[in-house]
Design a protein that fits this description.
This is DUF262 domain-containing protein. By secondary structure, the protein is mainly α. The protein has 3 helices and no strands.
């Protein structure tokens, strides 16, 4: 896989948080999140899901719903 490639895999929230512990490596600790950053993330996630939630086809087949990219954005 080249450095310009990004691979993705879908996970439900249950799969992301079930039987798992997340840790922050020492070199990333200066990039801590406070309440404002967490609120912004949750607001963004909820807003994204609200956009497709009225489409009942996604409720019957959630794997067809639009994906939400959670990761570092590349400079445009």
């Amino acid at each position: 896989m080249g450095s310009d490639e990004i691979r993705s895999q879908g996970f439900s929230l249950w799969e992301l948080f079930r039987d798992v512990t997340y840790e922050i490596d020492y070199y990333q600790r200066e990039y801590t999140w406070g309440e404002d950053e967490v609120r912004t993330l949750l607001r963004d996630l909820c807003g994204s899901f609200r956009n497709w939630l009225p489409n009942t086809a996604y409720l019957r087949r959630p794997h067809t719903a639009p994906q939400y990219f959670l990761g570092q954005q590349r400079p445009g």
